[in-house]
Amino acid sequence: MEYKLENPVRISTKSPHESLYRWFVEELDTATKKISPNYVPWGWSLYFDATALTVVRSLEFETDKTSDVNEHIHGRRTPQTSDRRAAASYSFFGTNRKIERFTLRIVKSKDDEESFHVFGSPSYEHEWDFENLLQSDTVEVEVVLPASRFERIASFVESDNPKAVLILGGVHGFYSEWSPSIRTTDIKVLANLKDQKVSIDGEAEIDPPVLGKIGSFSFRLLKGGVATGKIEADDTEADPPSIFEERPASPAPSVDISGLEKKLAKLAIPLWIAVGLLVVSLFR
User: Fold this and answer.
1) Is 254 among the domain residues?
2) Which of helix, strand or coil describes residue 216?
3) Which 3 state secondary structure label does DSSP give 100?
4) Could you tell me which residues come within 8 angstroms of residue 49 by beta carbon, excluding any fewer than 6 positions away?
5) Is residue 2 one of the residues assigned to a domain?
6) Each residue of 93-105: pLDDT tens digit?
7) Phi and psi, residue 162, nearest 5°
8) Which domain holds residue 201?
9) Which of 208, 174, 247 is nearest to 12 (CA)?
10) Each residue of 79-113: b (16+ CB within 10 Å) or e?
11) Distance linking the first and last C-alpha atoms of the chain
């Protein structure tokens, strides 16, 4: 499978600010000349409008097998651009293309487990029925919920096609320039080192975060006369804290990963439904 990449990508340990970060990801031209800023893991909040939410319930069976019911909610996500805090542009490392396809998938768990993940890949060509088809750059958030929580959300979606807001924090695989600010306008995405042909300087032992884990997740359905799914200043709570207790002095590999995973395991991930001015917590 050939991914549509335009620029070589390299992880460099030649940090100009070692007190802030020990390594960074950079893009090069074909002559290996640096053409990008220094990108480090981004741990703060990012905002999306969720639209075209649809509940899908399917019945499937095969001969000599019991039938199976699968249920999920899917929709599109659009990066919010309503204010300076929310505005951000996304592209995969190795490309100059703006990512246009963001999706959301909420799945009803069959064993009452829950999980939150993000997946994605740069554009590639694939063959289907003797045709070469082009898959666009894609990033998908997948949420698996216990039946009771899934049904509460599904009932709202089915009853009134609501607007929705999605807030993600500490997404592994999202990078931006280091900044003391909690805002950014430029996110580069690292999905897979091999697929994006990422090289590493020398023999440095670096394990850069790639798409997979989500540090914090908030999903708000807006109904009861709310005209827009965009976050307005008066309706916005303070930013959830970064998964890093403060802006990291160095990127994720310098953080104690085992300790970070323990923190994530203890994290009470908020999932909110807003009906008019009433906000109901689904995770209390």
Assistant:
1) yes
2) strand
3) coil
4) 77, 78, 80, 163, 164, 165, 166, 229, 230
5) no
6) 999 999 999 999 9
7) -75, 160
8) 9-57+69-281
9) 208
10) bbeeeebbebebbbbbbeeebeebbbbbbbbeeee
11) 45
- The tokens for 221 are 């359905």
Share of the chain above pLDDT 90, in %: 60
């649809």: which residue's tokens? 54
Q: How far apart are CA 103 and CA 86, in angstroms?
A: 18
3-state secondary structure 44-83: CEEEEEEEEEEEEEEEECCCCCCCEEEEEEEEEEEECCCC
Question: Would you state the pLDDT for residue 84?
Answer: 63
Q: Residues 252-261: pLDDT tens digits?
A: 334 343 443 4
Residue 160 lies in a domain: yes
Q: How confident is the model at residue 134 (pLDDT cuts 50, 70, 90)?
A: confident
Sequence-ordered list of residues with C-beta below 8 angstroms from that of 274, at least 6 positions apart, any chain: 220, 221, 222, 223, 226, 280
Please report whether residue 64 resides in a domain: no
Buried b (16+ CB within 10 A) or exposed e, 194-230: ebbebebeeeeebebbbbebbbbbbbbbbbeebeebb
In the Cβ-directed half-sphere of 105, how many Cα atoms lie within 13 Å? 15
Q: How many domains does the chain have?
A: 1
